[in-house]
Amino acid sequence: MTNNSLSVAPESRSAPTLNWVSVGFFATIHAVAMLAPWFFSWSALGVTIFLHWFFGSIGICLAYHRLLTHRSFKVPQWLEYILATIGCCALQGSPIFWVANHRLHHAFPGDEEKDPYSAKQGFWWSHMLWLFYQKSQFFDHESYKKSAPDLARDPYYCWLDRYFLLLQIPVALLLYFLGGWPFVIWGVFFRAVVLWHSTWLINSASHLQGYQTFALDDGSRNLWWAAILTYGEGWHNNHHAHPNVAPAGRKWWEIDVTWWAIRFLQVVGLAKKVIMPPQEQPQNG
Description:
Strand order of the largest sheet: 1-2
Number of domains: 1
Shape: globular
Distance between the termini: 23 Å
Number of strands: 2
Radius of gyration: 18 Å
Low-confidence stretches: 1-5, 7-12, 280-285
Order of helices and strands: EHHHHHEHHHHHHHH
Helix content: 55-70%
Largest sheet: 2 strands, antiparallel
């Protein structure tokens, strides 16, 4: 992906304005999540941990990020749709929206106009404020779909772009059937909040703390505790050095749980054309 392949038209740029719908949405989910201690059960906690992995590692890290954004491997179309749908259940936007903005992040790393969550604008901007002070080129469908034309041409992804929020209804109903309100509070609301902040740490903390294996000027770092919380995404400097590579870890101790899932799909014959790291040794900064 080169800077020439993605562009933000000057006329599409706009000063960010506070979006009260977005503020209200995130505030409401956080407020309901704070009820979790009054609905605690060990089984509800177990559901939260499982869904954090399932929606986070499989849905976001594997599907949205490594499969759809960077095309670091290929799977049958039916499986790609299933994985993308799992990603929608994470409540982090539609595949087109997520992929488009992340491709811009890689095409223009750190650019305060073209990188949606540029870490150069501060920890809180890259962590979550970019979702509140929305720039139209990153949130208007007609603008962001230009950065993910492969997905925008697909009718199913266009459907998900409009209706992904509705997927929370069957998730909540299933959880209520299995364990009542504790499962709903913990498995939908508390899980969403924890997974949001886990994912957002890659945009914020992993551009401010950690070590660099590769000499890059985009501020990306390898941050071990973020890698634990995000199933391997915290090896962010490795990823920025080779964005289209399937495994994020390079050293044996750089644990990448999401890569384990990709490797499993490869072993059973469902993942093809898996892109591996180049053989040359990385250059230290």
